[in-house]
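In response to reviewer comment 3 from the previous cycle, which asked for concrete evidence that the modeling workflow produces usable outputs, we include below a single protein chain processed end to end. The sequence was submitted unchanged, and the resulting structure tokens are shown without manual editing.
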Amino acid sequence: MATRYLVVPCVLGALAIGCHRDEASDEIAPGPSTASQPAPVDHLAPGELVEGPEKIFGVPLPRDLALERQFVDVGYASGEPPQVAVAKYFSTRVEGGKVTTGDRGAIFEAVHTTADANRTLRIEVATANDGPFAGRGSRVTIRDITAVKQPDLPDEAARWKAAGLNPNGTLADPQHLK
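The workflow returned the following structure tokens.
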């Protein structure tokens, strides 16, 4: 029976020692340093834009830009991202040509997309000055400036005939106008 009374205080003593609260244990241990580790591949850099589903002449627009309208030779888009981020986005998707940057935007002159080297484009990125994003968003104009291949005609008379005219400038077929 004496051993029974001795076991109870030992168990209580062990519990008291195990439940002792250490002030240092409340602090969260620092994890591995993130500064030395590269960011995962699926993370965007600050200000980097994601490719969206809409395209103008084969050039994908950033997800945050909306296609406003597109015609045969020009397309317009606008959205909330700042023009600097939009210009950086397009610089990675076009090649060749000349790039001019300034306070109010950037112009990519005579550039080609990586997908279609036969199409020549002029891309203008500017700060939106009207609409819902005025003063804070971007407006993009993309023009197809690809030179139309002219038929290879052997002489001047053939060029006049292709235009429907005689070499003296008169109509080759006056009945054609009726």
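Confidence is low (pLDDT under 50) at residues 24-31. We consider this sufficient to address the reviewer's concern, and the full set will be provided in the supplementary archive.
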